[in-house]
């Protein structure tokens, strides 16, 4: 592996690590709401996770990341400000597809935290320009759009960028399952490993998708999130 390849791998490993201070540990991505409604238990957990990847996260977040990556690659080498318009369109459309407040807030809160730190760590003009754009409230700053910019500027190819972000989400979901007592430490690792073929499938589907097709369809997850917003007690912000 060349030095350039290794640097890209190290970037992906750092940003997907569960210890990276993104705030993802506060999110269950709707899993807690499903558990509260009795829609998931330990036996059904892998099937539920795969459905979330295929029908909610993949068509929305992964597509947005792939589109943000493409917009950054297309415009970013000419002028740091050049991708801002295209990125804003993607970001706003993704934000509009989230039907519940807690899913919108969770995505933008983690996105802004990651973006602010990425601007410091990478010292890249396009990442810094997007950070300034989001901080000025010109765009919501969804986490997947942020990662599209970061991974594009970090040199990852589009499919690897999508797969890296999906891996981070799956690790976050496995951690949530552990805290919700839907899994133990061993079964949580089996959950992550078992999701690998689905991550490949979803990443392949996201690459080449157009903006007009961005958006998932997971009504049970949306209903669970609506219930979760108003629950009396909860471990997670989403």
From TrEMBL:
Function: Required for maturation of urease via the functional incorporation of the urease nickel metallocenter.
HAMAP family found in the cross-reference section: UreF (MF_01385)
Subunit structure: UreD, UreF and UreG form a complex that acts as a GTP-hydrolysis-dependent molecular chaperone, activating the urease apoprotein by helping to assemble the nickel containing metallocenter of UreC. The UreE protein probably delivers the nickel.
UniProt keywords, alphabetically: Chaperone, Cytoplasm, Nickel insertion
Lineage: Bacteria, Bacillati, Actinomycetota, Actinomycetes, Mycobacteriales
GO MF annotation list: nickel cation binding
GO CC aspect terms: cytoplasm
Similarity comment text for this entry: Belongs to the UreF family.
Subcellular location: Cytoplasm
Name of the molecule in the record: Urease accessory protein UreF
A Pfam entry, by short name: UreF
Gene of this entry: ureF
């Amino acid at each position: 592996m060349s030095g350039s390849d290794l640097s890209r791998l190290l970037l992906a490993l750092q940003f997907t690590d569960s210890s990276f201070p993104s705030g993802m540990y506060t999110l269950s991505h709707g899993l807690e709401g499903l558990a509260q409604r009795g829609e998931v238990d330990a036996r059904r957990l892998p099937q539920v996770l795969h459905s979330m990847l295929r029908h909610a996260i993949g068509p929305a977040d992964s597509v947005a990341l792939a589109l943000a990556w493409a917009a950054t690659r297309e415009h970013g080498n000419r002028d740091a400000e050049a991708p801002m318009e295209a990125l804003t369109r993607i970001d706003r459309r993704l934000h509009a597809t989230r039907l519940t407040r807690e899913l919108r807030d969770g995505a933008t809160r983690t996105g802004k935290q990651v973006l602010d730190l990425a601007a410091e760590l990478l010292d890249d003009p396009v990442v810094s320009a997007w950070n300034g754009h989001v901080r000025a409230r010109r765009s919501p700053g969804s986490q997947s759009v942020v990662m599209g910019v970061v991974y594009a500027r970090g040199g990852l190819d589009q499919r690897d960028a999508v797969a890296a972000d999906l891996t981070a989400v799956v690790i976050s979901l496995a951690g949530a399952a552990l805290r919700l007592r839907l899994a133990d430490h061993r079964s949580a690792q089996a959950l992550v490993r078992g999701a690998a073929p689905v991550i490949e499938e979803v990443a392949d589907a996201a690459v080449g998708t157009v903006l007009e097709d961005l958006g998932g369809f997971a009504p049970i997850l949306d209903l669970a999130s609506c219930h979760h917003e108003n629950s009396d007690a909860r471990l997670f912000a989403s």
